[in-house]
Amino acid sequence: MKLTKMLRVSATALGCLLALISCRQEPDAASGPLAPVDVKVVNHLVAVLGHERCVLELVDPASGEKVKSIRLAQPPNGMAVDGATAYVAEGGPRGAVEVVDLESGELKCSFPAGHTPMSPVVREEKLYVACRFDSRVLEMDAATGTVLNSWNVPVNPWLWPFLRTAGKSGLPAICRPGLRTGISRLPR
């Protein structure tokens, strides 16, 4: 009985994994950055972050031509732009903010920014970064990366279905047997 239940749970988890993998796009040489995660307008250009390719690309919207491609150290999660400077929040457990000069394409500096930094905002020489899995917001000096202040925020709202259902079947709500997804019906 336990073996049957374990096999059914394993098959459901495998179905979830296969559903997620089937959504993944393949790189296309003619396209821009794979899995764009953020877009900002910078003067007459558009700055696009490509998560899969770890790249910040500047594109001329009139022609669609790539003007500049800047390689990043880790997969980016978001950016803020202040003049000709981009603050790119990137990475996972050892996340960082890379400060990039958009005119030259040079990396000015990089500083640590918690677990999976996201959604940076620059205001009055301060940089604010949400650290997704630390459930914290950092207030940093935008020039040096020195943490000036930090505070806790509620746990990630996207985790609530996982936490709510973890004790019932051991599977998160998104991987329940029989759940309809946009791709197919998962096995029961």
What characteristics describe this protein?
single chain; 188 residues; alpha+beta; four-stranded antiparallel sheet; disordered C terminus
Low-confidence stretches: 9-30, 164-188
Helix and strand run: HEEEEEEEEEEEEH
Compute the gyration radius: what is it?
Answer: 20 Å
Q: Number of helix segments?
A: 2
Mean pLDDT over all positions: 76
Largest sheet: 4 strands, antiparallel
Question: Would you report the number of β strands?
Answer: 12
Q: What does the oligomeric state look like here?
A: single chain
Itemize the secondary structure elements and their pairings.
Layout: H1 2-22, E1 36-42, E2 45-50, E3 55-59, E4 66-71, E5 76-82, E6 85-90, E7 96-101, E8 107-112, E9 117-123, E10 126-131, E11 136-141, E12 147-152, H2 160-169
Antiparallel strand pairs: 1-2, 2-3, 3-4, 5-6, 6-7, 7-8, 9-10, 10-11, 11-12
Description:
It is a single chain. With 188 residues, this protein is of the alpha+beta class. The protein is 16% helix and 39% strand. The protein has 2 helices and 12 strands; from the N terminus they run H-E-E-E-E-E-E-E-E-E-E-E-E-H. The chain has a 4-stranded antiparallel beta sheet, with no helix packed on it. A 4-stranded antiparallel beta sheet has the order 5-6-7-8, with no helix packed on it. A 4-stranded antiparallel beta sheet has the order 9-10-11-12, with no helix packed on it. A hairpin with a 2-residue loop joins strand 1 and strand 2. 24% of the residues are buried. The C terminus is likely disordered.
